[in-house]
């Protein structure tokens, strides 16, 4: 009997361990997301808010975002970058774990926005939803052309009905907001619109959302930042401090994320008018995204802040997937951006971990630099994000327009085989030796495991090389594969059995070619061998 009870106890312990492990759910970036039942998920420029389920009263996460027609088109065919952004509505999804999402409703429809008008186009985006207790109603706030539109509903599931538009000129000097999101302070229940000046974006404001003259609207405004132009304005709260975040003015492209910190929601935000870059985000422009919004997960064991970035870029061309989510770490009040391709979240405990299938290569598809590099225009830059280019022999890299180009503009035909608009380019008009590489190692918050790895990439190359190889080097050992012939079509190359030691590896490409020879590289992957 004792033996039976012992086996039973071991079984219960093992089952409990499996159930605890099962509470971790995977978040995978660089791909298109689906709902729980497999339908495409379309949600951009929105936010996630916690509201009670209208039927059960259970607290759930509600994710609101704009559905654009071109998001469908790009998902169907990623070889074409779509130039427009036709509004299809605001979608609402619900979840209890922030990973498995259920489509709830199209809460703001084109019919509600445009009515009987024949002109059913124009910009709608950058939106959020707040519950206002005094009115016992929900308000959806969204940019609509050159004004801010307010729509009201009795349920978080809508339908939201247009209430009014607000021209912001009498407050901030422009009729429109630059970019905006809704932030809710869960400790006070108050919500705020975070937005920038409509021209130049060099000022950021906060306005409390509330009831005024029986209308749900903005109650006031306060400037909390003035300085360099910023957009993608959003906020989060962590350990009783308020963080104001924004991106650079790079249009549709990914950019560096910035932040300021305050003890009070209305500031002062410090360092005053001097936004700081999120450490960890520099090498790939915040995982090739723009600041969208944040979710703070307060679990039973830990609190995790999730950066939720948007990939806009005229509806992509800068990699797959519209939503790029990564966990933040903190050193005091300084946030750290963990740029991960795949990670697991336990929404109940608030814990997270790196997933076993994470691609450790940074800027793996060379999409962070959406422009031709070197670039003489914003950003002025002579290198590829996340990669180091060493010219051993040949023409030096410079802003001279006649010099070597570090990246290649993928054609529509090429994008049937590789991801995004750009790939690595190794070529020169004279004989050259080019070495392009990156070092992968542990960060202050994520350990790069000592394990065996597989390195793959897609290449397309001419002949005319004395040496053309892909390699990985760790612990004094070098693992290589040599490309010995021309590849007229994109071909996958592979280095297997890479043993990482000392939690560090260098991966890269070495090209020793004659004048006019070229090698293009795309879609690099470094993953643990299963």
CATH architecture of the largest domain: 5 Propeller
Q: Portion of residues in helices?
A: under 10%
Number of domains: 2
In whole angstroms, how far apart are the ends?
40 Å
CATH superfamily of the largest domain: Glycosyl hydrolase domain, family 43
For this entry, give a set of tags.
single chain; 530 residues; mainly beta; Tachylectin-2, Chain A; Jelly Rolls; five-stranded antiparallel sheet; globular; disordered N terminus
Description:
This protein has 530 residues and is mainly beta. It folds into two domains: 25-354, Tachylectin-2, Chain A, CATH 2.115.10.20; 367-528, Jelly Rolls, CATH 2.60.120.260. Helices cover 8% and strands 47% of the residues. It has five helices and 34 strands. The chain has helices at residues 2-22, 69-76, 110-114, 169-172, 285-288; strands at residues 25-28, 44-52, 59-68, 87-95, 102-108, 124-132, 137-144, 147-153, 161-166, 177-184, 191-197, 203-212, 215-218, 222-226, 231-238, 241-247, 257-262, 276-277, 290-298, 303-310, 323-331, 334-337, 342-346, 351-354, 388-393, 407-409, 422-427, 432-441, 452-461, 465-474, 477-482, 487-499, 504-513, 518-528. The strands form eight sheets. Strands 10, 11, 12, 13 and 14 form a five-stranded antiparallel beta sheet that branches. Strands 25-28-33-30-31 form a five-stranded antiparallel beta sheet, with no helix packed on it. The longest helix has 21 residues, at 2-22. The radius of gyration is 25 Å and the shape is globular. The chain starts with a helix and ends with a strand.
């Amino acid at each position: 009997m004792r033996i039976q009870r012992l086996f039973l106890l071991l079984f219960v312990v093992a089952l409990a361990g499996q159930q605890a492990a099962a509470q971790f759910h995977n978040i995978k970036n660089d791909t298109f997301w689906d709902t729980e039942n497999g339908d495409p998920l379309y949600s951009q420029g929105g936010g996630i808010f916690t509201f009670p389920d209208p039927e059960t009263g259970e607290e759930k996460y509600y994710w609101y975002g704009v559905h654009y027609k071109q998001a469908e088109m790009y998902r169907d065919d990623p070889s074409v970058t779509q130039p427009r952004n036709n509004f299809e509505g605001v979608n609402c999804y619900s979840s209890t774990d922030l990973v498995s999402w259920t489509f709830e409703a199209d809460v703001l429809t084109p019919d509600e926005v445009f009515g009987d008008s024949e002109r059913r186009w124009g910009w709608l985006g950058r939106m959020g939803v707040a519950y206002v207790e005094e009115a016992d109603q929900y308000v959806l706030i969204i940019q609509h052309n050159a004004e801010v539109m307010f729509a009201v509903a009795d349920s978080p599931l809508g339908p939201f009905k247009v209430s009014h538009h607000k021209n912001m000129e009498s407050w901030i000097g422009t009729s429109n907001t630059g970019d905006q999101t809704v932030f809710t302070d869960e400790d006070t229940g108050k919500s705020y619109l975070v937005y920038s000046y409509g021209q130049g974006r060099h000022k950021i404001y906060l306005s409390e959302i509330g009831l005024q003259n029986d209308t749900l609207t903005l109650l006031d405004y306060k400037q909390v930042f003035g300085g360099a132009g910023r957009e993608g304005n959003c906020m989060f709260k962590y350990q009783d401090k308020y963080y104001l975040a924004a991106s650079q003015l790079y249009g549709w492209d990914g950019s560096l994320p910035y932040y300021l910190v305050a003890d009070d929601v209305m500031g002062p935000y410090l360092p005053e008018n001097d936004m700081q870059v999120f450490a960890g985000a520099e090498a790939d422009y915040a995982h090739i995204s723009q600041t969208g919004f944040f979710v703070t997960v307060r679990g039973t064991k830990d609190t995790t802040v999730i950066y939720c970035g948007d990939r806009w870029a005229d509806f992509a061309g800068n990699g797959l997937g519209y939503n790029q989510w990564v966990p933040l770490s903190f050193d005091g009040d300084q946030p750290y951006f963990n740029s991960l391709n795949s990670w697991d979240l336990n929404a109940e405990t608030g814990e997270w971990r790196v997933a076993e299938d994470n691609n450790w290569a940074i800027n793996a598809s060379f999409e962070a630099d959406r422009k031709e590099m070197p670039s003489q225009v914003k950003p002025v830059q002579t290198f590829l994000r996340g990669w180091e280019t060493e010219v051993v022999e040949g023409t030096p890299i410079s802003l001279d327009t006649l010099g070597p180009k570090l990246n290649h503009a993928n054609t529509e035909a090429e994008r049937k085989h590789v991801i995004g608009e750009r790939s690595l380019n190794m070529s020169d008009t004279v004989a050259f030796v080019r070495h392009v590489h990156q070092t992968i190692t542990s960060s202050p918050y994520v350990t790069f495991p000592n394990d065996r790895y597989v390195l793959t990439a897609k290449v397309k190359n001419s002949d005319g090389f004395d040496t053309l190889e892909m390699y990985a080097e760790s612990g004094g050992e070098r693992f290589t594969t040599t490309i010995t012939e021309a590849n007229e079509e994109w071909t996958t190359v592979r280095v297997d059995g890479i043993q990482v030691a000392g939690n560090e590896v260098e991966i890269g490409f070495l090209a020793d070619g004659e004048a006019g020879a070229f090698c293009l590289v795309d879609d690099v992957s470094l993953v643990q061998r299963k």
